[in-house]
Amino acid sequence: MTRPSAFITGITGFAGSYLADELLAAGFDVRGSVYYDEPTDNIAAIKSRLRLYALDILDPSQCRRLLSRLQPNYIFHLAAIASVGESFRNERSTFAINFDGTVNLLEAATRLKKLRKFLFVGSSDSYGVHRGRNKTLTEDQPFNPVSPYGISKAAAEFACRYYYRRHGLPVVVARAFNHSGPRQNTQFVIPAFAEQIARIESGLQKPEIRVGDLTARRDISDVRDIVRGYRLAAVKGRPDEVYQLCSGRAVTIRAILDALLAQTPFKIKVRVDRNKLRRSEIPVLRGSHRKAAQRLGYRVRYRLKDTLRDTLEYWRSRYRSMK
Amino acid sequence: MTRPSAFITGITGFAGSYLADELLAAGFDVRGSVYYDEPTDNIAAIKSRLRLYALDILDPSQCRRLLSRLQPNYIFHLAAIASVGESFRNERSTFAINFDGTVNLLEAATRLKKLRKFLFVGSSDSYGVHRGRNKTLTEDQPFNPVSPYGISKAAAEFACRYYYRRHGLPVVVARAFNHSGPRQNTQFVIPAFAEQIARIESGLQKPEIRVGDLTARRDISDVRDIVRGYRLAAVKGRPDEVYQLCSGRAVTIRAILDALLAQTPFKIKVRVDRNKLRRSEIPVLRGSHRKAAQRLGYRVRYRLKDTLRDTLEYWRSRYRSMK
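Structure tokens for the assembled complex are given below, as produced in the milestone run.
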């Protein structure tokens, strides 16, 4: 029996690199795409066990050629502009990469013969502004996105369902809430805090941490849980179904900062940076993982405490190795 | 006092040509864009009173240059792939023209100094599949689109709201239900029936009309009501608001066919065309125009009977003039 083959777009990215770990451990033959000369640091440790292919997902014919050559059993489409903040600065690229890029891959995938599942990663940011601040969001919550990121992911989900309905493509959507962990870049809040603490501990920054709005509440998972959810959704999920992946709890950014600061012996002053202060239009995002638990057997294994500790350790080791 | 200036994208199209009539009659200085060498038959009678400019809305810099040169007070963005059926055949162009094209115009419009309102035309097709077959849809109905057309219009509406929230662009959305009338092309059901009747009456087709699924129920307005709604929404509508334009009643395609057949003395056989039979995934679309009535003073002036009669007369005169 040959191993099932998986093709990951965005394999060099944060979640992509963890998904590659996850799929290798689960016995998949793992291939992935690399966009021109983007760095492959995130997958350095496993690179010899992967096969990598150049791909610009904005080019429909490249998508068709590569997929028909690889004939994967599973496609995990993770390549995207993944930061809400970056999407505000690059609206057009966000729409192009996250929406048009997805359509290109969906279209190319309709021609495949051995494909069992196409996993698309949706986002809780597509829910956007909703009534009931403390509402627990479920998969049937309507989209009301307010960021280019949330808009692009909402539109791409519509396209996913269309490619199932119209072309029979077995698309499954894993709708992920926020997630973090080692290797995530500092456009995201947890690594942004962790990096600053590590810099302070290394004497590279005065003992003052710069923060933006601390009042937003988010449902944050460990990336290692989330990518397990991606694998489960692809293997066990049903086409045209959406599965939320989340922790089920929401914490304030302030609580995250405090938990990180509690892990350093340094006395650090918190300073609000006016440039970062723009308050999120979405005060709370909290999801339910009930459907994923019941249908996929999804379980949350990592506590937020573990994620924060591991992320801080990652940044400490980076600054140690730089000395 | 100078006349307010309006810029219409898609002015050569069906609704665009009626909107040009409407705005000229209301005292606007009317300009419009033409895509390369597309036909201008629809505006032949008023061409001397308009100023036309070449524009490919897929080119962001063309959009910026033309709009900053014209500095319109009102933009009416109607250019789109407007047929649900065509969108199934040209998925990618539909996404590009209806979504990317809209983003290009929104972005270009943020730079304007005299702009009072940007009117975007949304669609009831973005509601897609919804619970409660006979539900009267209101502006707060969530989107659940199942056609590339509905997806592209839903995504473009999200972008419209984003450009208001983020960039302060005064965007108003007129969410139109089905509309018809003379000059509409035969990709749409009423002109498709009317043309066949006119051909039969002219002896160009045997007395047999080919039809697809007749069971869908749609809320159909006269285009002349709808474009008045566009003008009212642009002039009186509030930024970031959506106004549904519709008749408030839904009729089956079968009833439309019967009403048209009642207007010809010819005995015509109805034959189901298997190629056209694909049943719509959306059995009923019926809207409420209450908000438009209350806030904009929108009134339905044309009865469906008038629309059908005028459309049939249009096709009769076209076939008469061809003889």
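Chain B has a mean pLDDT of 96. Chain B touches chain A at residues 60, 88, 91-92, 95-96, 99-100, 103, 107, 142-143, 145-148, 151, 154-155, 158-159, 161-162, 165-166, 281 (CB under 8 Å). Further analysis is deferred to the final report.
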